[in-house]
Write a structure and sequence with these properties.
2 domains; 4-stranded mixed β-sheet; binds ligand EPZ; alpha/beta
Length: 417
């Protein structure tokens, strides 16, 4: 397994280009299942998770062609309606095939995703929603057996604004008979992206970005082409990197309207952030201030940036309380940061960080995607050398991270196992 070796202390100065959003690209690849015509996607990020979703679709007999940042997908016919355990367990977003398969093939056999490092990750809201739309759902031998001769529009009231749950149900409802109303829908930009994409395919979805999404079912959807939005979590990660190394970065492609909570929080921590040349200029001239944060569904502070902010707070001088309200176990990075000398106390859903202004490099282990990003950031700002093992977690959601960081001055290299 590859390792990342970082010698800390370099200020990051220069430009970083943000890639296409992983959490938009994944559902858009799968939404191609909703039509038998060709779909053309642009600005597709080069990530492990994209390779996985490509394998998943190919496994079902769907043609997928990737050239650079473009992909052509055509679900002309389906060889199988199954998403097998070995693929679903490596990428839980595979459960997004349920909606399109029910709509298109009137059935699906999808492995239950199981839990992951950050929580049990139930999918009850997805399944209850499909049942409300008229599907029969059976769970047997670790698989979801779903079938629906037809889907009928209805009102679905989500007890939690689940991101992939909203996406899954939108895709099913797009080809259902009648109108579906999703109350307490997720408002994330990636969810809006999926709705915009379906509308470009001939769908009729309104209310995107609000708590109430209305989907008027249509009889068929057609092919289209679409350019994927930039990855706001990748952008936020490099914004924090600029702050932690007291650097000065132009983060090209970052959309400020997707990052308001992050911009506000990092400004509170002492960063200067303003729009420049179609991106965000991020610099830290003074010292890092301790701030409190609480993760919330969009437009609140994103849970996917929680670990990165925690790494930054270790370099402030003072007390910071970070509460994780979205997932029940998303503090796996705490133990690793403590190996670097961090003073962090976890109490229930909150982590109390006593920033000492510095960390010392150490061998650490990545446990999940965003935790591994927080360890890279900590290594960039720590004194001495940090070695991060199991960085396959990082490759799931960050494209060429060590190259992008080296270009702006980081002393970082990937050591092949
Ligand atoms: C999406 O996961 C993202 N993944 C996650 O990003 C992100 O952290 C998360 O949304 C929250 O923003 C993709 O989009 C592929 P949820 P998702 O359903 O949809 C509970 C990353 O790092 N819940 O919004 O799985 C759930 O347990 C990844 O890129 C139920 O109880 O998240 C959690 O506590 C990590 N029942 C909360 O809702 C359900 O049926 C939010 O989960 C569904 C969810």
């Amino acid at each position: 397994m590859d390792k990342m070796v970082i010698h800390g202390g370099e200020r990051l100065i220069g430009e970083v280009q943000i890639g296409g959003a992983k959490n938009a690209a994944l559902p858009l690849f799968i939404a191609a299942l909703l039509t038998d015509e060709e779909i053309h996607l642009h600005n597709v990020p080069a990530l492990r998770d994209i390779d996985t979703v490509e394998k998943l679709l190919r496994n079902m007999g769907i043609t997928v062609k990737r050239e650079g940042f473009d992909a052509t997908i055509q679900a002309k016919s389906l060889d199988t309606i199954e998403a097998p355990y070995d693929l679903v367990r490596t990428m839980r977003a595979s459960i997004l095939v349920l909606g399109p398969l029910l709509a298109r093939a009137h059935g699906a056999k999808v492995s239950l995703p199981g839990g992951c490092a950050i929580g049990t990750r139930p999918i009850n809201l997805h399944l209850d929603g499909f049942h409300a739309l008229g599907a029969e759902i059976d769970l047997e031998h670790g698989y979801i057996h779903a079938k629906a001769d037809k889907l009928a529009g209805t009102t679905i009231d989500l007890s939690l604004p689940t991101v992939t749950g909203t996406e899954n149900l939108m895709m099913a409802a797009a080809l259902a008979e009648g109108t579906t109303i999703i109350e307490n829908a997720a408002r994330e930009p990636e969810v809006v992206e999926v709705g915009n994409f379906i509308n470009k395919m001939g769908g009729q979805i309104s209310g995107l970005g609000t708590k109430t999404v209305v989907i008027k079912g249509v009889s068929a959807l057609h092919g289209t082409d679409y350019t994927i939005m930039p990855d706001r979590v990748e952008a936020a990660t490099y914004m924090v990197a600029a702050g932690m190394t007291r650097g000065n970065l132009l983060i090209k492609g970052a959309r400020p309207q997707h990052l308001k909570a992050v911009i506000d929080k990092l400004s509170e921590a002492g960063m200067e952030i303003h729009e420049e040349n179609g991106g965000l200029r991020c610099l830290m001239t003074g010292s890092i201030k301790s701030v409190d944060a609480k993760t919330l569904p969009y437009p609140g502070f994103p849970t996917d940036v929680q670990a990165q902010l925690m790494a930054m707070m270790c370099f402030a001088n003072g007390l910071s309380v970070i509460s994780e309200t979205v997932f029940e176990n998303r503090f796996m990075h705490v133990g690793e940061l403590k190996r670097m000398g961090a003073d962090i106390q976890v109490e229930g859903h909150s982590a109390i960080i006593r920033g000492r202004g510095e960390l010392s490099g150490a061998p650490v282990m990545a446990t999940d995607l965003r935790a591994s990003a927080s360890l890279v950031l900590a290594g960039l700002a720590a004194s001495g050398t940090t070695e991060i093992s199991r960085i396959y977690h990082l490759d799931r959601g960050y494209e060429r991270m060590e190259e992008k960081l080296r270009v702006v001055g980081a002393n970082i290299r990937r050591v092949k196992a």
